[in-house]
Design goal:
It is a single chain. 62% of the residues lie in helices and 13% in strands. By secondary structure, it is of the alpha+beta class. The chain is rod-shaped, with a radius of gyration of 47 Å. It is built from four helices and five strands, in the order H-E-E-E-E-E-H-H-H. Helix 2 packs across helix 3 and helix 3 crosses helix 4. The longest helix is centred in the first third of the chain and has 88 residues. A five-stranded antiparallel beta sheet has the order 4-3-2-1-5, with no helix packed on it.
Length: 196
């Protein structure tokens, strides 16, 4: 009986140890499962955060691109307006005076004629009459050109008045009177030539 009791005791201890081992294994598996689920949740949260960050970045890039596009469009509109305004300022053949240059100061005060319409750099080609009598074509911004102003003599003023009475425009009369140096006959020829 004592031997049986001892064997039973050994078997009970063995069963208890096996149960303990099984319980530990179950606890370990459960802990691993909990850790796996937490890792999974963290990973999912990281993916959500990453997607949200991507969306924010994409929205910011789109906003920046939209601002760049709007700025470019405004700049193009301003350039187009400036071009239209500048192109209406002068026409080929207009006599102009150069002024306000800071680098090529020696050209300030020189007179010349516009030889072509404004180029893509928003500059007017002008054939200048240099101080030594030679001619030279240079390009100028509209802000550095002004219409050539003529001081008219009394004789030229009288001729201009007579031409205007005959129906010529003030510009035709002024230009013709100056070209003819006040000579009515020649001024009339010039004015008639400009009219046609």
């Amino acid at each position: 009986l004592a031997e049986e009791a001892e064997q039973r005791s050994i078997l009970d201890e063995k069963a208890r140890l096996e149960q303990l081992k099984a319980d530990e294994e179950a606890a370990r598996v459960q802990a691993l499962e909990i850790r796996r689920q937490e890792d999974q949740r963290r990973l999912e949260q990281m993916q959500k955060d990453y997607q949200a960050a991507l969306e924010i970045q994409r929205a910011e890039q789109e906003a920046q691109q939209k601002r760049r596009d709007e700025a470019r469009k405004r700049r193009e509109d301003e350039e187009r307006k400036m071009l239209l305004k500048a192109q209406s300022e002068y026409k080929v053949g207009d006599e102009v005076t150069v002024y306000g240059l800071t680098q090529s100061k020696t050209l300030n005060g020189l007179h010349g004629k516009v030889t072509a319409m404004m180029n893509q750099e928003f500059r007017w080609p002008v054939e200048l009459c240099m101080n030594d009598g030679t001619k030279r074509v240079s390009n100028f911004k509209a802000q550095n050109l002004k219409p050539k102003v003529y001081s008219m003599t009394d004789k030229q003023m009288q001729t201009m008045g007579r031409l205007m009475e005959m129906g010529f425009t003030s510009e035709q009369a002024r230009t013709s009177s100056i070209k003819a140096d006040g000579d009515m006959q020649r001024a009339l020829q010039y004015a008639c030539g400009e009219r046609t």
